[in-house]
Amino acid sequence: MGRTLLFSLLSLSSTTLLASTSTKGLDEKINDGFMPFAVWWESLVLAEIPIFGHSIPVVLIILIVGALFFTLYFGFVNIRHFPTAIQVVRGKYDNLEKNQPPLQPHVFEVEGDLKDTIKDEGHFGEVNHFQALATAVSGTVGLGNIAMVAVAISIGGPGATFWMILAGLLGMSSKFVECTLGVKYRDIDSKGNVFGGPMYYLSKGLKEMGLTQLGKFLSIVFAVLCVGASFGGGNAFQSNQAAAQIIERFGFSGASSGSIIGLVFALLAGIVIIGGIKRIAKVTEKVVPFMAILYVGASLFIIFSHIEWVDDAFGLIVSEAFTPKATITGGFVGVLIQGFRRAAFSNEAGAGSAAIAHSAVNTAHPASEGLVGLLEPFIDTVLICTMTAIVIILFNMDGMFVYGDVVNGQALMYDGSRLGGVNITSMAFENSISGSSYVLMAAVCLFAFSTILSWSYYGLQAWKYLFGRGKWIDLTYKIIFLLFTVLGAAITMDAVIKFSDAMILAMVFPNMIGLLILFPKVKQEFSKYLKLIRRP
């Protein structure tokens, strides 16, 4: 049955690919037909309620309130234990974990093995702390850090940066909670393969709390949304934007250019993802530092090249966070919403996706990976997004575009033209360093590729939760995923991308319900781990 399903899907996908590349306008027809449903889904996920005279998405309120609660409940773990998190990633406590058993060993549920023998076999995960962090960071650090930051500043002005940073700091606490739970409730089979993420802590954790049926329902909903998000926002959108940058930068022409680029992306991604999380982790631990150094290095060069303007840029960030220009729609609340919204969409804190990668870590102590996880929003939002914001603000010191005037993600330039988010950032780089837009293009490709790798793992774990853990089940997902990589680069399907991106945000609803019920379990694990590392 598995093989029949696989060949049927391959036949359908191949037919779709051939039709889309050979029939002129077919992708536009599909897009137009699907758009009404995509718009309905997006409006449902981003449903708004009026607060202080402004319409605010419910999902954003849930993210902010949840993150603020976790920050207060755990005593500002995002600030007070930031140094501890650095030490865990550096491996300072690795020997301590190996030499001493957990204070209260967690009993893993194991397929085909006795529950109480797993701790003797030493199967505590597949990757180290740094690899887990690199894989998770590669899933969140993407085009949102380049394009969406430009959109946020275009709409909300420099002040949006202040609220974006604050949202990133609060999001660190949410990541701490979900990553701790991801390790605590994961499954590890007799071979040491890890299966984890919100699907597992929603079902197993809520079962412990006497909420079995709620846990089953939420875990299935999350898994379905995660699979859909992995095909679209985590894959097709990434290859589409990377292909667009390559075609524009090198002036490629012809209908087949996107297909060829997509095939190259799919080939490279396939080589990696077929090897599973260990190979993904080995690649991301090399790619993530490189792309971060490349992008942050270029940003810092631009910032220091305009050092005389940096204090003015920070002054605008702080002052316009509370007293924005009159041209900014929504005033103070509008700026706040833009900052929090873009940060939440960028670092995915509260969506639960990163907990899937962190669950694979080789540790016997869940809270240790919770601490590692809190570094992720800091890297993604507080560091990289802020770098982008400062470069764009410096670029606009001479008034290149009009704050508050954005249509369909494009900002109004004073010469009358309109530019999208990526192009604004590209102009900011090129204006400061001739030829640096090519560096940005390389960063876009690396960000897109690393995001594809991470989301392939996220989607596969959710797929396994829904359909089982057989070899053909795995292969079916991976082939479908790679076909979407090609399709994303080859065709224009805005409606599918809109639908898939909304799926990522929709993951917040089942995940945050679980976090707000299970947070006392995190407190227990955190207390045990702190006692362990503080022992003389």
Description:
The protein has helices spanning 2-22, 26-45, 58-73, 77-80, 82-90, 94-99, 118-121, 129-140, 147-156, 159-184, 198-208, 212-250, 257-273, 276-305, 307-322, 331-347, 353-358, 366-373, 375-395, 421-432, 436-467, 471-490, 494-506, 508-533; strands spanning 48-51, 54-57, 187-188, 194-195, 401-407, 410-413, 418-420. The chain has 536 residues and is mainly α. The chain has a single domain (44-533), classed as Amino acid/polyamine transporter I (Up-down Bundle), CATH 1.20.1740. Belongs to the alanine or glycine:cation symporter (AGCS) (TC 2.A.25) family. GO terms for molecular function: amino acid:sodium symporter activity. Keywords: Cell membrane, Membrane, Signal, Symport, Transmembrane, Transmembrane helix, Transport. Residues 1-19 form the signal peptide.
